[in-house]
Amino acid sequence: MIAYVLRRIVQSVLVMLVVALVSFSLFRFVGDPVATMMGQEASQADREALRDRLGLNDPVIVQFAGYIARAASGDFGISYRLQQPVMELILSRLPATLELALISGTLAFVFGVGLGVYTALNRRGWLSGTIMTVSLVGVSLPTFLIGVLLIWVFAVELQWLPSFGRGETVDVGPWRTGLLTPSGRASIVLPAITLGLYQMTLIMRLVRAEMLEVLRTDYIKFARARGLSDRAVNFGHALKNTLVPVITITGLQLGSIIAFAIITETVFQWPGVGALFINSVQFVDIPVMAAYLMLIALIFVVINLVVDLLYYAVDPRLRLDRAAARH
Amino acid sequence: MTEPLLSVRDLRVEFPNRRGTLTALDGISFDIAPGEVLGMVGESGAGKSLTGAAIIGLLEPPGRIAGGEIRLKGQRIDTLSPEQMRRIRGKRIGMVFQDPLTSLNPLYTVAQQLVETIRTHMPLSEVDARKRAIALLDRVGIPAAARRIDDYPHHFSGGMRQRVVIALALCAEPELVIADEPTTALDVSVQAQIIDLIKEICAERGAAVMLITHDMGVIAETADRVAVLYAGRLAEIGPVRDVILDAAHPYTRGLMGSIPTLTQESDRLVQIPGAMPRLSSIPTGCAFNPRCPEAFDRCRTERPVPLDRPGGRQVACWLAAKESAHG
């Protein structure tokens, strides 16, 4: 078990190093930072002096090592555009994105698994047919269109929910949350649905397919032949066996929810890291872009690690430390 | 004669599909006495397993019982509600499936699966159910049962898993055990052990066995009576010794001829020419007539009715009817 975790952690570190290399090369290949910082009026000598002071004349490998060392301690430099430390900027925006991602991820998981199980068990029912047809919409419509449609229906026509922003927020320690105020909770509904709809339909279709597969297996037949109740068979025996692939997909989807919240955040003017990233792209604010890249990679790597450990908890066959088949 | 434990009369199973209705079982009638072992033989697709599934109420939709009746100790069970039928499964009729490698849920320990089944049918506490489970495992020949009970199915070999499956099928003291090819997936070396175990343990508890197999050798050694199925119809039924030594139906004679013997010098085994008809194209008259070496006109036009013969035998064959009329 410990060896397994260690191996996975070493792999994760390797992945992060590769991402760091990509993010580092952003600085070198997307424009000249010295030109950006000094403008056109500066003399050649001043430029050289600055170049030297910033360490840009050092060998690339030394610069890269320095970059990693600073990144590891949370120092990603200063935003060109906002003249604030990048880490501070991201941390101040992160709670908004994480709250949005967690709420929509939870919605997607709960409704995805619930509807998936329902449609698998009532395969021939008309309601299942309807759900499956509607779910096609969730899979095929692009996120921004869903967002705009939701705004049109619920914010413009019905005027039930706000169309943009986070509503009132409250600071709990360093965490700025919108979940504790009524306007904050109302504000998160539409973006959360927009962001989670695709994931929900994906999870639902996956659960349905896996469940249909598992319901055909011998051990489910045998469980029925032993007279176990439908509830025990469907939820105890069948659902648990569908969970391994569902956990994988859900985990990875949580990563993409955070990473691709960009579009939803733009549509709803949600003050999260995604919106920060979009603005940084417009201004070629490379330190922010590089840090965002690292952050998203870190989130994916951590989620993958957690997913692998969850497998371990769900499926006893993966616990290799016990003797395999003892005869 | 004592009241039969299980009585099947004119059982008819149909599979409706787009092009019409396939009749998979047609006019199957037989009894099983308490404590008796009835062998059920036939080629693949003859309807052996389907008969078992129909009795225990686990026909896969769209398959359905379209006619006839099934009685367990006089009580009609084919018309029970799903919930009432569930209470009979496992409790009064146990079932052992073909493949022990896939019959057990891989995510639960043997103890969890046994205790769950025992507590579904018996008012026992967790602790008592566990004690009972250990005793059962011990009885079916799992060494160190008290320790092995907390292992997962993948920790056991195929033969051991089939022992666990037998323990599961017998854990609520059923009156009838349907064993659907219980040794087909096992090594030849353990087949005999498993068959002996089923026979022994059922005799000990007074449970009757319906042994579905295509292995005439197993039937000869184990069963009291044997039923021969062909294309969803009963060809012949009677005491094992009589049927094997003096088969009345040409199909049964063909089956017997295809068993290799040690004493007989022969280069080729006797083979029945042709193949069993598909369910969608069963010929008129006797289903076996195109392959039967002794078929005559009546066999091609009129379906043979089961005919009682002395010694508790029944044969559905016009030739046998003619012979007994003349003799």
Automatic annotation (TrEMBL), chain A:
SUPFAM superfamilies: MetI-like. It is a multi-pass membrane protein. Keywords: Cell membrane, Membrane, Transmembrane, Transmembrane helix, Transport. GO terms for cellular component: plasma membrane. GO terms for biological process: transmembrane transport. CDD domains: TM_PBP2. It is found in: Cell membrane. PANTHER family: ABC TRANSPORTER PERMEASE PROTEIN, DIPEPTIDE TRANSPORT SYSTEM PERMEASE PROTEIN DPPB-RELATED. Belongs to the binding-protein-dependent transport system permease family. This is ABC transporter permease.
From TrEMBL, chain B:
Signal peptide: none annotated. InterPro entries: AAA+_ATPase, ABC_Ni/Peptide_Import, ABC_transporter-like_ATP-bd, ABC_transporter-like_CS, Oligopep_ABC_C, P-loop_NTPase. It is a peripheral membrane protein. Transmembrane segments: none annotated. SUPFAM superfamilies: P-loop containing nucleoside triphosphate hydrolases. One of its GO terms (biological process) is transmembrane transport. It is found in: Cell inner membrane. Keywords: ATP-binding, Cell membrane, Membrane, Nucleotide-binding, Transport. Residues 8-256 form the ABC transporter domain. The keyword Transferase does not apply. One of its GO terms (cellular component) is plasma membrane. Pfam families: ABC_tran, oligo_HPY. GO terms for molecular function: ATP binding; ATP hydrolysis activity. SMART domains: AAA. Belongs to the ABC transporter superfamily. NCBIfam families: oligo_HPY (TIGR01727). This is ABC transporter ATP-binding protein.
